[in-house]
Hints:
mainly beta, 5-stranded antiparallel beta sheet
Amino acid sequence: MLSRKPDDSRPGTGLETMRLFVGFAAVLVLGSVIGCGGAVPEILYADAELFLVEDRETGTVGESLRLYVAVNDGDGIEDLSVLSIVHDESELYWQASAEEWVVVDQDGDSWIGMPDLRPVSGDVFPRGRYRLILEDESLQEAEGSFGITAPPLEIGAIVFPSLITDGSEPVVAADGPVVMHVFTRVGKLAVSREVSSGPLGDTILKEIPEESGLQVYLSSPPGDGVRLMSGPFDLDR
């Protein structure tokens, strides 16, 4: 049985990647052998989420795709070498090697992921079907697919969630609940949870480490369409 998708990862780390989900059409497996020897890799499931990201460090706004792919290889995950993401209509593609993706083992499934994939040009990804091509060290391949179908958001009309820290306690300013990720100054995820708009309150603050250099990212909860994300916000405790 396929498990749920892995937890969120910090934006902008590792390979410039993506996990933004929009009307996502998942998956399909089945490999074709173009090399000899060893087990043929498999793509079991693809999970993609699309975000519109407000990068407060660069002052830019653009889409980011977070993609995780559940995979299997009888020779071991370490036998996998390259994952390509291809949009045939626009003739664009993205490619990641084993040194660039992250690996997550969850509920018995092995996932390879690119948490922050960015458009090749411009601020948005082409809509439509994307092919996944997974290759192992023996040049054997498996193919799968996913789709991005939700229309791009009008950036000028968007109000991103924010964290206000100039008062006695941090306050989340948002239209509704948001997912809060708190990272230490060395980039380790310290807290990940959904919070309501308004003051964070003592219960949540007790979960956050008592240290300086913390950074916070806020995103709208999972759902259909494009999720909003904003950050980093500095938070000293």
